[in-house]
Structures are given as structure tokens and as C-alpha cells.
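Field log, afternoon session.

UNIT: design team B
ACTIVITY: writing a sequence onto a fixed backbone
BACKBONE:
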């Protein structure tokens, strides 16, 4: 049995990831591939419970360190229960956010030391690194406006200031450079079909 492929979607708020995740899943299924669509934090029963703790409530509820461990606790359950079994069964796993979100939000945004995050990543994610990571990039104001348009702020992170979101954007672009073997930057400015075509080009070039 050939191992399935693991694709993650990353980027700041309001980048339009969810719409594009759904479109990519459809396109892959049209090719007769078995696909599991999932998200983080969450994607398994236990991880969805941790998601509620991590994302709801007062923005200062958790220290950056605690928040980082909550994200990796959720990720550990998600990998054990959903991601690894699917990949081993030959399915493709398409995940809305993964460990690069911890690097950006808890690391660059929250100030958790990068070494701590890398230690957790090595222990929890280990060899189950994505085969392809699509990093959605767009100006912060455009993203926040779109997130606002969805009906006020949904999570604790959306309510942080513009400067916080600029740090995230910078870190995501840095990750794309550091890990260029698996990362592709997707220009997320444009209409849905244009962005879908950019994603498909990256998937075809790297994985098909
Ligand atoms: P969600 O509503 O799914 O946001 P989006 O549509 O922007 O993906 O909420 C996920 C939130 O969790 C988002 O604000 C980013 C944050 N997050 C982290 O801070 N660290 C992480 O490791 C992950 C996976 C997500």
C-alpha cells in the first residue's frame, strides 16, 4: 500500500483557505483519490475538545507557553487518531492549518521560543511532516477586513492588533523560505477561481 500524501494549508486570517480546501478536495476526489479533509486545532474527537479550550474566551486566557502545549496536545491526538491512520491506508490528507500555525501564532505572535516549538514538533509530528504546505499570503488589512466581514471576530486571535498579524505574515513567509522543500507561497489576492488555479498548479507540479 502506497502511503497517502499530506497537504497543509497555512496563512493568516481571512485568506480564504477554507473555500480552497474544499475545492482541492473535490478536484482530488474527481481523480478517484481517497481524501480526508480535516483541520487544526481539531480533526479528532479529543482535539476538537481541546480546540474549544484553546480558541474560546478571553484573549489573555493562556500564556503563550500553555497555548503552545494545548495546540500540540490537540495535534498529537489528531495525528494518532486521524492523520497517520489515513496516510497509512493510502488516503490523501488535506488539513486546514498545522504546525506552521503554531510557529507563526504562538511563536512569532505570542513569543514562545522557537526552540521549544521545534522540540515539540520533533516529538509530536516527527516524521509525519507535510509533503506540501500551501502558504496563503495577502496584505494584513485585506485579510482582517475579510475576517470582519464574516461576522465580527470568531476566535481569540482575530481580535489582536494589526501589528500582531504583520508578525504572523512575516513568519509565514520566513517559514516558506526556510522549508522550501515542502512550502509554496500562494498569492491569496484574486478571485476564487484564480487562486484555485494557483493551488492546482502547485499540487500538480509537486505531487501528481
Ligand atoms: P479558525 O476559525 O479555524 O480560523 P481560520 O479560518 O483563520 O483558519 O481558527 C483557528 C485559529 O487557531 C486561528 O486563529 C489560528 C489559530 N491557531 C493557532 O494559534 N495555533 C495553531 O497551531 C493552530 C493550528 C491554529
Amino acid at each position: 500500500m502506497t502511503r497517502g500524501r499530506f497537504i497543509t494549508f497555512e496563512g493568516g486570517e481571512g485568506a480564504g483557505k477554507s473555500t480552497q480546501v474544499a475545492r482541492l478536495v473535490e478536484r482530488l476526489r474527481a481523480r478517484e483519490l481517497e481524501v480526508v479533509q480535516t483541520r487544526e486545532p481539531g480533526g479528532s474527537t479529543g482535539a476538537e475538545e481541546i480546540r474549544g479550550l484553546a480558541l474560546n474566551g478571553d484573549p489573555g486566557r493562556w500564556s503563550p507557553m500553555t497555548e503552545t502545549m494545548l495546540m500540540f496536545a490537540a495535534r498529537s491526538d489528531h495525528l494518532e487518531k486521524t492523520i497517520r491512520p489515513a496516510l497509512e491506508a493510502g488516503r490523501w490528507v488535506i488539513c486546514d492549518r498545522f504546525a506552521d500555525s503554531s510557529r507563526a501564532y504562538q511563536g512569532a505572535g505570542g513569543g514562545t521560543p522557537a526552540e521549544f516549538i521545534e522540540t515539540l514538533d520533533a516529538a509530536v509530528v516527527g516524521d509525519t511532516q507535510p509533503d506540501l504546505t500551501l502558504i496563503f499570503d495577502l496584505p494584513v488589512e485585506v485579510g482582517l477586513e475579510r475576517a470582519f466581514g464574516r461576522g465580527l471576530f470568531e476566535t481569540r486571535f482575530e481580535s489582536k492588533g494589526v501589528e500582531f498579524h504583520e508578525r504572523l505574515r512575516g513568519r509565514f513567509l520566513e517559514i516558506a523560505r526556510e522549508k522550501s522543500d515542502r512550502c509554496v507561497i500562494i498569492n491569496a489576492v484574486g478571485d476564487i477561481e484564480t487562486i484555485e488555479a494557483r493551488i492546482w498548479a502547485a499540487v500538480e507540479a509537486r505531487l501528481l
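LOG NOTE: DSSP finds eight helices and five strands in the chain.
NEXT ACTIVITY: expression trials, pending approval
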